[in-house]
């Protein structure tokens, strides 16, 4: 049963995000405490509603990022990085390096790179090895697959291991890999996936859905509160100071002109 608790401070929360979608809730109903009803009037927000709406918004942002990679949509990825930069900057000292990395990407595509290199930087961020829609993978993941193929080939050399043999394997890696894939396809051989098997989450998911329905997590009920998420902010960018953000960007612009790269 959901009970209510008051907060010593009165906080207003924005209600701009959608209130439908994923019904998962990370916090259990045991985290919600009870106080006298006379103190309830001091509480002007709903931590349960705010928390789950924020969780849903973060999920949409992350899934959109993953979908942009699969579709090879470079422009959409750049748009996602803008959001990530603001999120990391709002996180302040905990995500300083990530916010700087996002910022310097925009310096590159906005002024530092030529038009040709800019297009390459935006669109050459994923690779499609199967020729099907929605099957792109990040370039670093493709590099890991390539390294794994080379390592297996080197291991098969046995006592014939030499620098010249390794050089031949590296130069012929893409062609050899393509030949093996075509051979497996013609023989209808099913290649084992490199993914790790995950246990079924159905039972846990059903339990989360049950609790979400019981608590009406997407129905705002002023006064509900979590012990460990007290006065939870629904909008993660609510505390972001726009003036400080502009000063931070301008400071790093000057550092670029001076040839200084903050890491």
What would you note in describing this structure?
It is a single chain. The protein is mainly alpha-helical and 263 residues long. The protein contains ten helices and two strands, in the order H-H-H-H-H-E-E-H-H-H-H-H. The chain has a two-stranded antiparallel sheet with strand order 1-2. Helix 3 packs across helix 4. The longest helix is centred in the first third of the chain and has 25 residues. The N terminus is likely disordered.
Average pLDDT, rounded to a whole number, is 82
Largest sheet data? 2 strands, antiparallel
How many E strands? Answer: 2
Shape: flat
- Unreliable stretches: 1-30, 33-41
Radius of gyration, rounded?
25 Å
Q: How do the strands of the widest beta sheet line up side by side?
A: 1-2
Q: Count of DSSP helices? A: 10
Class based on secondary structure composition and strand pairing: mainly alpha
